[in-house]
Amino acid sequence: MVVTGLGVISALGLDVSTFWRSLADGRSGIGRIGTVDHTRLRCPNGAEVHDYLPSDSFPPKQLDLLDRFAQFGLIAARAAVADAGISWSPALCMRTAVVMGTCVGGQTSEETALADVYAHKRTRLPPLLIPRVMANAATSHVAMEFGIKGPSYTVSTACASANHAIGQAFWMVAHGVSDLALAGGSEAPFSLAHLQAWEGLRVVASDTCRPFSRHRRGLVFGEGGGVLVLEPLEAARRRGVRVHGEIVGFAMTSEANHITQPSAEAAAQTMNQAMVDAHVEPSQIGYINAHGTGTVASDRAEACAIRRVFGTRVDRVAVSSTKSMHGHALGATGALEAIATILALKNGVLPPTANFAEPDPECDLDVIPNHARSADVDVALSNAFGFGGLSAVLVMRRCNT
């Protein structure tokens, strides 16, 4: 299954080319949060989308219906469709799927409404509030934008949401349920109550995101959206369009163990199952875009899982966490990372783990510290492990056709 369209908006840029340049330069988009009052936070940093004006992309009447997370999803979808050069017909619209991931949906609109009710004692709320906050809003707006009438739905599996969305879309097209799919995720998690709730879990860093680094302090949130266009190689050849890369395998599992504590065994199982689905061997994997949140427990569990899967060959597998640059965008993060992985294979450049300071003996991996690396890699994994023990791993391959 080939990827013929990419669209992204994130703290690393408003388009794919800027996003990729930032990754290749190892530039972190993390800084002081500006969309909420960061002085009320113990952990005041985040990876926000900069230089973004909603009015540049949407007319006022449409903005009334769009929470920030849905705006990001729709912007990414527009870019992906344009990149893929799709000409819509009634038949194609009936045979196209839209699968999007999100973790918190219309969080910013919901928090504004709750403040109106509880702090300002208002008895009437905006009539369009429900369409703004519903988790399927981005999916529905993407479908309406292009007149898509095939299977369309939203996946919400915490931090694995976008990987689940892309993987299920991949399977749907591979099995002939749909001829084409738009898949990815979007998120806008910067609301005060939501950030303070995460601070209560003691997993958010007060400085920056340092995945796999010995003195890391936790994750740092990001926002944005990413969408991929998936279609069979034969269809792409008939259309004569550029191919960015291939998705060749997917697996998803449940740890059935703990609501927040990660399991190395389950992560290893998911990676192995994804490679079986892709018909590739561990010896063929040259790069892993790790889940790499920057928390002590998660990074160590993932490092342990990678060592279980690759054994004595693990030192020849490059691993990096791009969350160190675009932040942890929750339900959108898998889409950002899938796009980063596809571009890494295509361009022969592996993005680094930024902000890296000192190795952690319990994360003894080749983490590409701080600077990107030129490398000729054919096959890669993109990992996502969400709260609730929900794991999703994609297998991607460089397309040489």
Descriptive report:
36% of the residues lie in helices and 19% in strands. The chain is of the alpha/beta class and 401 residues long. The protein folds into two domains: 2-239, 3-Layer(aba) Sandwich (Peroxisomal Thiolase, Chain A, domain 1); 248-397, Thiolase/Chalcone synthase (Peroxisomal Thiolase, Chain A, domain 1). It has a ten-stranded mixed sheet with strand order 5-4-6-7-1-8-14-13-9-10, with helices on both faces. A two-stranded antiparallel sheet has the order 2-3. The two termini are 13 Å apart.
Any chance you could write out the topology, listing elements then pairs?
Layout: E1 2-10, H1 16-25, E2 31-32, E3 45-46, H2 60-63, H3 68-84, H4 90-94, E4 96-101, H5 107-119, H6 129-133, H7 137-146, E5 152-155, H8 161-174, E6 180-187, H9 192-200, E7 224-231, H10 233-239, E8 245-254, H11 264-278, E9 285-289, H12 296-310, E10 318-320, H13 323-326, H14 333-347, E11 349-350, E12 373-374, E13 379-386, E14 390-397
Parallel strand pairs: 4-5, 4-6, 9-10, 9-13
Antiparallel strand pairs: 1-7, 1-8, 2-3, 6-7, 8-14, 11-12, 13-14
Helix pairs in contact: 3-7, 8-14, 11-12
Task: Tell me briefly what this model is.
The protein has 401 residues and is of the alpha/beta class. It is built from 14 helices and 14 strands.
Write down how many β-strands occur, each being a DSSP E stretch of 2 or more residues: 14
The CATH H-level homologous superfamily of the largest domain: Thiolase/Chalcone synthase
Distance between the termini: 13 Å
CATH architecture of the largest domain: 3-Layer(aba) Sandwich
CATH topology of the largest domain: Peroxisomal Thiolase, Chain A, domain 1
Strand line-up across the major sheet: 5-4-6-7-1-8-14-13-9-10
Give the CATH class of the largest domain.
Alpha Beta
Low-confidence stretches: none
Mean pLDDT level: 97
Describe the biggest sheet? 10 strands, mixed
